[in-house]
Amino acid sequence: MKGYFGVGVEGISKAMNLGAILRTAHAFGASFAFTVDAHHKALDIFQSDTARSLKNVPYFGWDSLAEMVLPEGCSLVGIELTEDAVDLPSFRHPRACAYVLGRERGSLTPEMQARCDHIVRIPTKFCVNVSVAAAITLYDRTLAMGGYPDRPLMPGGPELGTPGSWDAPKVRR
Q1: By mean pLDDT, which of 27-41, 87-101, 106-120 is the weakest?
Q2: Exposed end of the chain (fewer CB within 10 Å): N or C?
Q3: Sign of the CA dihedral 61, 67, 70, 75?
Q4: Which InterPro entries does the UniProt entry name for this protein (predicted)?
């Protein structure tokens, strides 16, 4: 997969959610992670981030939106339930971007939304947990940009060893 991506959250207050987001970002190969205006209690993440992602993924903790500095050419993609947002299954992910999600029990601030190059919504009946939204977004990016073969026409997966199939994942013991 070419390009890079970062994952961040604005105004997060729960350490378990932030830890889950960082672990998910690490698992999907994020180039960096960030918070903007995070509550100080949210930064105590080690109970939920058992992968110790901060030892493997650069982390930036900005106190305000004015302090946030992304790499040159990095598009900012807000994940938010708004009327004018693009549904995630129809969204073409930028090659180089940072995804930003909103706080628990709230939304991205109007200032953050104005800073975003794109606003994308996960087409659900109601909001899902912020860490679940991060996982869905990164999974969609992986499918869209990861170079996987087309899915088979019949239920099930392709037979191993046939063209367009992938070998079974290696399981760590």
Answers
A1: 27-41
A2: C
A3: positive
A4: Alpha/beta_knot_MTases, rRNA_Methyltransferase, SpoU_MeTrfase, tRNA_m1G_MTases_N
As beta bridge partners, residue 121 has: 87
DSSP code of residue 10? E
114: in domain: yes
Q: Are 5 and 134 in contact (CB under 8 A)?
A: no
**Residue type, position 79, single letter:** I
Residue range(s) defining the domain that contains residue 16: 4-145
Interval 16-30: pLDDT, tens: 899 899 999 999 999
Q: What is the pLDDT of residues 22-61, one digit of tens each?
A: 999 999 999 999 999 988 776 666 666 666 777 888 999 9
* Within a domain: 151: no
Cβ-based neighbours of 102, under 8 Å, separated by 6 or more: 9, 10, 11, 78, 79, 80, 108, 112, 130
Total tally of structural domains belonging to the chain: 1
Is 156 a member of any domain? no
Burial class (CB in 10 A: 0-12, 13-18, 19+), 84: exposed
Residue 106 structure tokens: 């709230």
CA dihedral over 50, 25, 137, 159, signed as positive or negative = negative
Average pLDDT over every residue of 102-122: 94
Q: Is 140 within a domain?
A: yes
